[in-house]
Amino acid sequence: MLVPEEWGRDKVARVRLKRSEIEQARKAAIEKKPYVVLPDGQTRQSRTGVKIKMPPEEDRLSENRITNATLAIALSPTLAEEYYVQVTNLPQVLDPFDIRATAAAKRAYELQQLPLMTLYIFDNDTEKGQQEQRRAVVYNFPEEFVRKGEIELKNPEKPAEAIFKLIELPSAESP
């Protein structure tokens, strides 16, 4: 944009981008109309657009191996009174796994009071009797870091899968 010479070299045309436009500009050039701020504070927009291309965002997440996995088994009080959950492949479930995280997110995940993973058992799982069943575990990543995109499973399509059986507990009435 042409501006009066007396404005000096510090006056530049600007473009304001929304977050969605920034993401778009990281993939392909987008067109926006620049503007200048006049000495009295008013803005004047150009009649012609400019093409804007942004560099890809630097990946803030690094790969980390989690070697001290812990597993919780969550089931209703009713099931807990009647069944014992036997995870038949526990060593494989607790195998080291890889995450992508910032240093702060990894530290929070490893130091949290929650177990690192949870296997959820549902009341209707009893319908299969003592047959082996399979279910992906849930990784208990700290919610605040998940929301900010600072922690994720390296291979989210391949979570650890627990193989389990529900073993009926002997009733208190039987000798």
Class computed from helices, strands and strand pairing: alpha+beta
- Specify the CATH architecture of the largest domain: Beta Complex
The radius of gyration over CA amounts to: 28 Å
CATH class of the largest domain: Mainly Beta
Give the low-pLDDT segments.
none
If you consult CATH, what is the topology of the largest domain?
RNA Polymerase Alpha Subunit, Chain A, domain 2
Cα shape: rod-shaped
Q: Terminal Cα separation, in Å?
A: 93 Å
Order of helices and strands: HEEEEEEHEHEHEEEHEE
Q: Main β-sheet: number of strands, strand sense, barrel status? A: 3 strands, antiparallel
The main sheet orders its strands as 5-8-12
Total domains: 2
In DSSP terms (H or I, runs of 4 or more residues), the helix count works out at 5
Tell me roughly what share of residues is in helical segments. 10-25%
**Roughly what fraction of the amino acids lie in strands?**
25-35%
Number of strands: 13
Quote the average pLDDT.
91
